[in-house]
Each structure stands twice: as C-alpha cells, then as structure tokens.
Specification:
The chain is an all-alpha fold and 242 residues long. The chain is 66% helix and 0% strand. The chain has one domain: Up-down Bundle (Ferritin). It has nine helices and no strands.
Amino acid sequence: MTIAWRTAAWAAAAGAALIAVPVGAAWAASSDGSGDDDRGAYGRAMGGMMRAWHDDDDDVAHGGGCLGTAAEDDAPATDADAASLAATAEEERMAGDLYDALADAWDLRTFAMVAHAEDMHLGAVLTLMDAYGLNDPTEGAVAGVYDDADLQTLYDDLLERGTASETGALAVGAYVEEADIGDLRAQDVDSASLASLYARLEHASEHHLTVFVRALDADGQPYEATVLTPAEVAEITGVPAP
C-alpha cells in the first residue's frame, strides 16, 4: 500500500509548485472595504460555492448508506484495511490541523470551512474504525504533532510555505487535496464499506481542490499539478492547465 503523504518525493515535488508571493490584484481590487474576509464579489461567490460543497461534506460524515459503519455482510477488517484506515485517519487529522493553522494565519473563511470538513471526514473514518472494533489512532493527539516522521516533515514544510503568503496558503491547500485524491485512488481495499467511504472522501477532496485552484486562477496564479496529471486537475476543477 502506498501512502502519498509518507513519500518524501511528494514534499520535494510540491516545493516546485507551491507559490510564496503576496496575494495579487484580483482579490485586492474586489474588496468592498467592509473588512469581511469575503473579499468582495469574488469572495462572496467563492463563499457560496464553499457553503454548497460544505453541505456535501456533511453527507460524507453522516450519509451514504453504509458510510461510516460496517455493512452487515462485511467480514472483519483485514490487516491491510485496518492499516489503511489508521493511516487515513492520521492524514485527515494532519490536513485538518494544517487548515486550522492557515485559517488562523490568514483569517480566510475558506480555510476554516475546509478545516471543519476535514474534521467531519476524520469523524467518518473513526466511526468506521469503531464499527470494526479498531482502536482510535488519534486519541490523545496534539495538533501539529505526528508519530510518523515523514508526515511530521511534510506538515512542517507545508505550514512554512502556507504561512509565507495568502497565495502560498491557497497553493498548499490545492496540493493537499491533489495528494489526497491521488492517495485515495491508489488504495486497494477489501471492505465494501471502506471502498464507499474512500469514494466519498475523494469526491469531497475534488470539491476542495476546485475551490483552491479557482481561487489561484482568479488571482492570476496558475497551479501546477504535482501528483495528478495536469489534465486530471483541469477536468476536476474546470481550470485549464497552465
């Protein structure tokens, strides 16, 4: 099983794509001077999109039939599925911690909403783990601290890049979602319930990737794919590849 977060190559590849420049004229010009983080007409449109997709994230945590619980005809979780769930729980926790930190750094509602969605996704993973009688690997965890050294290094690197500028933060968000999609697609699981959960998590990550890539595009900053192909990112987001 390949976990994208745990491969050092992902962090190296991300470095070439993550932008660390001041936020450009598109948002500044659209500001209505109200002091709200909507950033004017463009921000209000993005906020509406996030709210609509936030409702879809609720479905990831609370809907979808067997989602979040083991189906009656599911056998006990295999060792591979148990390991996959534990790793996914840590990755969801890391993404939520990162978005919380970026929300604090930049006071952008987009990050706060996506962070909340990641919390719901983690809850769905932990609910399924509980249904299988598996221990919660995140119990007692401290935000921003991870037992896996590669995951810790990646978090630290992305946090540094994301706190350098608002545009850099958006690029970090896009990379996180792109890597998450690639990771979920690479999973080979035995449980139908787990496959259903991963499909919904991938769908939610596509929504989040679209928000970040469109925000960068509106600011005149192209996003270069590093995990998926440029064509795949363009198909998901509707933003032509640079």
